[in-house]
Write a structure and sequence with these properties.
- A hairpin with a 2-residue loop joins strand 21 and strand 22.
- The chain is α+β, with helices and mostly antiparallel strands.
- The termini are far apart.
- It contains 15 helices and 22 strands.
- Helix 1 packs parallel to helix 11 and helix 4 packs across helix 11.
- Bound molecules: flavin-adenine dinucleotide.
- Flavin-adenine dinucleotide binds next to helix 1, helix 2, helix 5, strand 9 and helix 11.
Amino acid sequence: MTKLPSQTDFIVVGAGIAGLRASVELASAGRVLCLAKREVTESNTQYAQGGIAAALSDDDEVGLHLEDTIKAGDGLVDEEAARILVEEGPHRIEELMEWGTEFDRTGAAIAFAREGAHSRSRVLHAHGDSTGREIGRALYLKAAALKNISFREFEFTTELLLEDGEVCGVRVLDQDGQIHQICASAVLLATGGLGQVYSNTTNPAVATGDGVAMAYRAGAEISDMEFVQFHPTALYLKNAPRFLLSEALRGEGAYLRNIELKRFMPKYHELAELAPRDVVARAIAHELEIQRRPDATVYLDLSHLNAEKVRNRFPTIYTTCLRHNIDITTELIPIRPAAHYAMGGVRTDLEGRTSLEGLYAAGEVACTGVHGANRLASNSLLEGLVYGARAARTICDEAVPVRSGSDSISARVQPANGSTGEVESFVRQVQSLMWQHVGVVRDGNSLRQVVAELTRLQQQAPKSGGRSAREAANIAETGLLIARSALAREESRGAHYRVDFPLKNDAKFRKHSVVCGDSVSFE
Ligand SMILES: Cc1cc2nc3c(=O)[nH]c(=O)nc-3n(C[C@H](O)[C@H](O)[C@H](O)COP(=O)(O)OP(=O)(O)OC[C@H]3O[C@@H](n4cnc5c(N)ncnc54)[C@H](O)[C@@H]3O)c2cc1C
C-alpha cells in the first residue's frame, strides 16, 4: 500500500454522499485526498432507504418543498439555507442521473413516493429501498475516474491540525497504528452522523460523531446538538440490529398498532401514521410506557397492502425481515424508535465555512440550519449533495497555499491504555445513559444528572492509542454536547421534548444553540 502523503491540496474526511460530491467538485482545482475510516461503502449514505426529495414532478413546486421543510423544522429552519436546498436540489439530482444514478421509474417517468410531512409525492428512490447505495455507487464511480482524487480507506482521522488558530490539516491513525500528519490548503469534514452515541440506533458502526468531536476540540462552534431525530420505526427483536423500517412504508399505507392491535396514531395527530417523525416517535414512546414492560413493543402492519407491491417496492426490508422470520406481507413487525439523524453539528454558513479558518463541513456532520429542529424525511441526502458541492466551490475560491502544521493541538481526551473489554463497557455505559436520559422524552433533573455523569465518565475514558478507544472518546464527547444543549434548551420544539417544559417558548428559544468551549448560548 502506498504511504499517506504528508501534503495535498484538499482533504475530505468522509466518503458518503457529501464527501463524494465535494471531492468531484474539488478535483477541478487540485489534488484531493478523500479519507474513510472503513470501506467507502460503509456510511450512513449506503443505508438510506426511502429516497431523496426534490420538486421534480409535474404537480410539485420548489415553493411547496420549501414550505414543507420550514414546517417540519418547527420555527428554527434557516429559510435561506432551505431555499438554497430546494432550489439547487433538482439540478444536483439531474446531475446525479447524468453520472449514472438509476432512479426507479414507472414506464419512462421517474416514480415519486410520498413520505410523512411532504405535501406532494416528491421522493425519488432506487432499487425500491436502496437509494443511498445506488447514489453512492454512481458518485463513487464518477469520483474514482478523476485522476486528482485519491481514496484511502481504513484511515482514521483523529484530530484537526491547527496553526495560529487556523486548520491546516489532519492527523490520521492508519491501519497499522501509525500516526501521520497531512497538511492541506483546506479540510472538509464530511464525517456523517452520530447515532452510535445511543444504545438504539439505525446508524451503522461508523457513525460515532468523530467530526463533531474533532471540530469541538479544535475550538469550532457546534450548533443545535439537542435536536436528534429518533426514527419511530426500527425493527425491535432481541439480538437483531435496529434495522430501519422506512417512513415510506407508512407512506404506502402501513398502520401502527399497539399491543391490543389497535391503530393508535389517529388519536395523536390528524395525519395519523403520516404525522411528523417526532410526533410518531413520542406517540410510540407513550404507548410503550403504558405497557410498563422492559420488552414492550408496538407493531407496524402492512398485511392489508398488496403483497406483491410490498415485495417489489421494499425488497431490502422484505428480505431482511424474512431473515428474522417475519414475512412483512402477512405478519406484524415489532418496532420501537431508534436514534436516526443529527439535525445539529458543526456550525456552518451557507457556503460550508465553519467558525475556524481552513475548516469546512457538509452533510450530516454540519449544521447549516436547513433542518431546524426537525428534518423533513429524505432531505438529508439532498443536503449532502447540495451543500457538499457548495462547500467545495467555496474551498476552490478561497484556496490558500498549503502550510505545514504545528504539532500541538489541545485535546480534551488524552490517549493512554485500556483493554477492548473496558472500551466496550465504557461505550455501553455512555450509550445507555444517553438512551435513558437524552432520548425521545427528556427532563431537566435527569439531564443535569447525565451531564454530571458524562463529565465524570469522560475523565475516565478508556485510553489506548487504538481506534476504538478514540471512537469511544468521541462518542462520550458528542453525547455530552447533546446533553448540555438539551439541558440548556428549556422548551419543547421539534425533536427535542422536555416534560418539564412541554411548550414552545419562541420569545426565549426561537434561536440556535451554540456550544463553544464550556459555554452554551442561543443565537
Ligand atoms: C438506515 C438509514 C436510512 C436513511 N434513509 C434516508 C433516506 O431515505 N433519505 C435521506 O435523505 N436520508 C436518509 N438517511 C440519512 C442519510 O443517509 C444521511 O444523513 C446521509 O447519508 C449522510 O451523508 P454524509 O455524507 O454526511 O455522511 P455518511 O454517509 O455517514 O459518510 C460518512 C463518512 O465519513 C467517514 N468517517 C467518519 N468518521 C471518520 C474518521 N474519524 N476518519 C475518517 N473517516 C471518517 C465514514 O467512513 C464515511 O465514509 C438514512 C440514514 C440511515 C442510517
